[in-house]
Write a structure and sequence with these properties.
The chain is mainly beta. The N and C termini lie far apart (about 130 Å).
């Protein structure tokens, strides 16, 4: 028999489709899978995608169409159960904490539900060790209380392979005493990537290690970072002076903090570390003090200032300035200015232009460069009340003017808790240094170029400016870190200012002779 317009037909086999007696209550239309029930169970090596079954169908079987999108691949599976297994050894292996997009549709022989979806992540795994573990050591001296405390700052970077969200880090710190390991920190859990450990013992070697944690498990420990507290290993930080601000910049963490704004650009800046004070001279040759949050004008200097330095032990500011003829070095006594009128004293007068002034408080000496007519390093001794060229015939291992060495107007002093002070200067193509006590000269393996200025040195780092960029070489022969700043003018590293023993700060009494 012909069927006009027929496009499809169905053959029903009563033996195959057996209907229940109460056909009016049959439900073969599955409900949507509950989105919130789609979840991950297991470990990162072997886990299942599971969901709650659809329970409203009362006739026939319920099947599930599962679509999985992982990275760049898509998988489609038709299942009769409410789970799907991933195995690390299988072809569908998924790394730890990988995003998995899942859609599920329930269906019967007759109808399908709408799709449910969920964004899942494979289980977390074991994280790799944190990167770049490093330790900085800082000494704090209080000459009044005769105290000397030592803190260590332990830093690290997140692991290369976290294998899941990092929920924290466990920090370990220990040292050996009488062949016994003493624990300062034994797996202390912290959230950040820095731990400051205070009140360390002087001249002791401490070991630092750290491990990362995920919700699954702990990672391996980093290699031990061992530091001796007799040495100073400061964080590479500097005050960056721009035309409008003084910033504190951490070259290690690459974080910047605003310290104070300035209405007139600053030319020179120094600090009194123990008291938390800054002093600067601006373009108007005005001397300011900054303490806490207040700025105070201390003095208007009579001539153009060429350099500024501070003796933090005696609390005296020194600057060189141009006179009507020649130049002079002046001393500004902060002890008297706190209580009395300004006490200003001219220390040295020279016919040449004195610049790059630095002071060595322990030696009670001033150093500067002066063009006569080429740049020469001069020294003034307060104890001898004498000014002379720094290099003479007694420095057999060091250059002098007659040796044809070109000294450039770059000068800085390095002080250290465990070594003598060293004076650094620039020659053509190189830097050199000399120990102020030993008089031994050393080549500093770093090339000088005429665009370098604001050069400074601490125990581990070498700082300078070029154009609009601040640089620091992290250690001898180490990596160089740089950061650009708008209208940068000068920088000042946060070097520790050391003090002699307390007895050396007390005025001599009769019949006393402290050596």
């Amino acid at each position: 028999q012909k069927l006009s317009g027929a496009r499809a037909f169905t053959i029903i086999d009563p033996a195959h489709h057996i209907y229940p007696e109460d056909v009016q209550n049959i439900n073969v239309l599955p409900m949507k899978v509950n989105d919130s029930s789609i979840r991950i169970q297991g470990t990162w090596k072997k886990f299942n995608i599971v969901w709650d079954p659809v329970a409203n169908v009362n006739y026939g079987k319920v099947f599930y169409k599962l679509t999985i999108k992982v990275k760049s691949r898509t998988e489609i599976h038709e299942l009769s159960k409410t789970s799907f297994a991933f195995n690390s050894a299988g072809a569908n292996f998924v790394p730890a904490h990988t995003e998995i997009n899942v859609t599920i549709s329930a269906f019967t022989y007759w109808r399908s539900s709408i799709f449910s979806s969920a964004r899942l992540y494979s289980p977390s795994g074991k994280p790799s060790p944190p990167l770049r573990p490093r330790v900085f050591v800082k000494h704090f001296q209080n000459p009044i209380q005769n105290s000397h405390s030592i803190d260590a700052t332990f830093r690290w970077s997140p692991p290369k392979n976290s294998n899941g969200p990092i929920i924290g880090y466990k920090v370990h710190c220990s040292y050996e005493e009488d062949d016994t390991v003493k624990h300062v920190l034994q797996g202390e859990l912290i959230n950040g990537t820095e731990r400051i450990v205070p009140n360390l013992v002087h001249n002791v070697s401490y070991s630092f290690r750290v491990q990362a944690l995920t919700s699954a498990r702990e990672g391996d420990l980093t290699a031990a970072q061992v530091v001796n507290t007799a040495e100073d290993h400061p964080i590479p930080q500097a005050l960056i002076v721009t035309s409008e601000h003084v910033l504190l910049y951490d070259f290690d963490s690459q974080q910047s903090t605003n310290v104070v704004g300035t209405s007139t650009p600053i030319n020179f800046i120094v600090r009194l570390d123990r008291e938390g004070k800054l002093f600067w001279v601006d373009e108007n040759n005005e001397l300011f003090q900054f303490y806490g949050s207040s700025k105070t004008k201390l003095h208007t200097i009579s001539g153009p200032v060429q350099s500024l330095t501070i003796d933090w032990i005696q609390r005296v500011l020194y600057w060189s300035q141009l006179e009507s003829v020649g130049s002079a070095i002046y001393a500004f006594d902060l002890n008297r200015s706190d209580k009395e009128a300004v006490h200003l004293e001219r220390i040295v007068y020279r016919a040449g232009n004195m610049s790059n002034l630095v002071v060595s408080p322990m030696d009670r000496k001033l150093f500067w460069t002066e063009r006569v007519p080429e740049d020469v390093i001069f020294v003034h001794s307060f104890e001898e009340n004498k000014t002379e060229e720094f290099f003479d015939d007694s420095f057999e291992e060091c250059p002098n003017r007659t040796a044809g060495i070109t000294v450039h107007p770059v000068l800085t002093l390095q002080t250290s808790v465990d070594e003598e002070a060293r004076l650094f200067w620039a020659e053509t193509g190189a830097f050199r240094s000399i120990g102020l006590n030993s008089k031994t000269c050393m080549n500093f393996e770093f090339e000088y170029n005429p665009e370098m200025h604001s050069v400074a040195k601490d125990g581990d780092h070498f700082y300078w400016l070029e154009k609009d960029t601040a640089f620091v070489r992290m250690d001898n022969g180490g990596s160089i870190v740089s950061e650009k700043f708008d209208e940068i003018r000068t920088l000042l590293p946060l070097r520790l200012q050391y003090y002699p023993e307390r007895r050396c700060l007390i005025p001599l009494q009769k019949e006393q002779d402290y050596q």
